[in-house]
Design brief:
This protein is of the alpha/beta class. It contains 13 helices and 22 strands. The N and C termini lie far apart (about 65 Å). The protein binds nicotinamide-adenine-dinucleotide. Nicotinamide-adenine-dinucleotide (NAD) binds next to helix 7 and helix 8.
Length: about 475
């Protein structure tokens, strides 16, 4: 298992402080990795700056070939890297393999988009002039990523950055650096030149300060909490560093009276219990029509009771441990405060003991009689909890859904075509799933509005995040 920083194609421990990476399922110490700071970040930016010109000079097809090779290696080694991912993050092995496929798809998609970076010609105002619009790589970029999708959140940034001709310095989350370092090893094997990808583990404040304090780093792409996104936005003002901010969510899921309840329950399972509810697009508030409320809860309870909680490395497990102790405390607080304010526990509601394991396994939980002012309806929970609120009128459901500063993903279930259009347009979110609990895919522009940030990752749109637009106004001299 790789445990060093990758700087300029070299694996370096640096000889300084380290920090431990723990398996959340059983508290086993998996590895010690470098506690890097300013010095290592500047060395990584030096390397990324040196590597920039030769990388840009390669053809787009040449860069695409390297990215496709990285994708191929990632898929080939999915069982090994998936195991590292499950051990450091907790998600079931089947989901880790799914994440690796998803991560590889961003590399392949971006590789092809990089070959289609088109400029423009624009008619000029006099016939002895021509206007050419060029799309050029931003330069050295940074990526700061979260622990919930430790491989895919990197490739969603790395793929388009490299395809566009940029180089990158990556700081993975402290909880999950090992799968990121494993990805770095594959990048070297795939032929990514030294300095084009650099990965440093360590102190988030020191590393991000060094990134945003250095004018050579022209763009930072961050995925994480809204709180940290705000801090980075303030610090980015020093060098006017370009930002993409993929931040927190608080997704509503509406079940209308005409919904197919089997599809609504399947969508709920997909978007609530995947990754133990720790995804930014996890549904966090369930807004269910009065007339089908009891039937929905019954069907959901039947399905939830079949979910197996346990160590993600074990066959047949659907729900692993939450990432750390504060995560368990937050989930318990959301459940307890809801129950104390009148919510009814349908099932779950506490951690569940598992032999020889940590106490971070939370039972899949359903709460009904939830009201919008409860804490669980105000904050992102990041856990396997389904809080259900009733509604009677469509307008009321949309108003409840939009009553949050967040705007990442929203879901609704209906078979009424005009409602599909009306509600999709009224929801103040960057992503809307209609009868679909799993809308994320490499070809779509993933991202949020309001306090969920800005910028889009995926699809053709992501390339703009790593490109500058320049125009050349050319006057003939003869
Ligand atoms: P986090 O903001 O605590 O951490 C994210 C990254 O920021 C980590 O690498 C961390 O080391 C770093 N960081 C932490 N404090 C920092 C600071 N003061 N300065 C600079 N960097 C700092 O978030 P998290 O707990 O790792 O991830 C969960 C959050 O991420 C949730 O809110 C979730 O919704 C969000 N998320 C959003 C998306 C999206 O695409 N919108 C995807 C996944 C996760």
């Amino acid at each position: 298992m790789q445990t060093a920083n990758l700087i300029n194609g070299q694996w370096t421990h640096g000889g300084g402080d380290t920090f431990g990476v723990i398996n959340p399922a059983d508290d086993q110490l998996l590895a010690e990795v470098p506690m890097s700071g300013r010095q290592e970040t500047l060395a990584a930016i030096d390397a990324a700056s040196e590597a920039l010109a030769p990388w840009q000079e390669r053809t787009a097809r040449d860069r695409a070939d390297v990215l496709h090779e990285l994708s191929r290696l990632l898929l080939e080694q999915a069982p090994r890297i998936g195991r590292i991912l499950t051990m450091e993050q907790g998600k079931p092995m089947a989901e880790s393999l799914g994440e690796i496929g998803y991560a590889a798809s961003f590399l392949d998609w971006a590789a092809e988009e990089g070959c289609r970076i088109y400029g423009d010609t624009i008619p000029a105002s006099s016939n002895n002039k021509r206007i050419l619009v060029l799309k050029q790589p931003v330069g050295v970029t940074g990526a700061i990523t979260p622990w919930n999708f430790p491989v895919a959140m990197i490739t969603r940034k790395l793929g388009p950055a490299l395809a566009a001709g940029c180089t990158q310095v990556i700081k993975p989350a402290e909880d999950t650096p090992l799968s990121a370092l494993a990805l770095g090893e594959l990048a070297c094997e795939a032929g990514v030149p030294p300095g084009v990808i650099n990965i440093i583990t360590g102190d988030p404040v020191a590393i991000s300060d060094a990134m945003l304090g250095d004018p050579r780093l022209r763009k930072l792409s961050f995925t994480g909490s809204t709180e940290v996104g705000r801090i980075l936005m303030q610090k980015a003002s020093t060098n006017l560093t370009r930002l993409s901010l993929e931040l927190g969510g608080h997704a509503p899921l509406i079940v209308f009276d005409d919904a197919d309840l089997d599809i609504a329950v399947a969508g709920t399972l997909a978007c609530k219990f995947r990754n133990m509810g720790q995804t930014c697009i996890s549904a966090n508030r369930f807004i269910v029509h009065d007339s089908i409320h009891d039937a929905f809860i019954q069907k959901l309870q039947d399905s939830v009771s079949a979910l197996v909680v346990g160590n993600g490395l074990h066959e047949g497990v659907h729900v692993g441990p939450l990432i750390n102790d504060p995560a368990i405390e937050k989930v318990q607080q959301h459940v307890d405060t809801a129950v104390a304010s009148g919510a009814t526990l349908v099932c779950g509601g506490s951690t569940t003991p598992i032999e020889s394991m940590s106490d971070r396994f939370y039972q899949p939980t359903i709460l009904m009689d939830v009201t919008p002012e409860m804490l669980i309806c105000q904050e992102e929970t990041f856990g396997p909890i389904v809080p259900v609120v009733r509604f009677t009128e469509d307008d009321e459901a949309v108003r409840l859904a939009n009553a949050t500063p967040y705007g990442l993903a929203a879901y609704f279930f209906t078979n009424d075509a005009s409602r599909v259009i009306r509600v999709s347009e009224a929801l103040e979110y960057g992503i809307v799933g209609v009868n679909d609990g799993a809308p994320s895919t490499a070809q779509a522009p993933f991202g949020g509005v309001k306090h969920s940030g800005y910028g889009r990752e995926g699809g053709r749109y992501v390339m703009d995040e790593y490109l500058e637009t320049k125009y050349v106004s050319w006057q003939f001299t003869d």
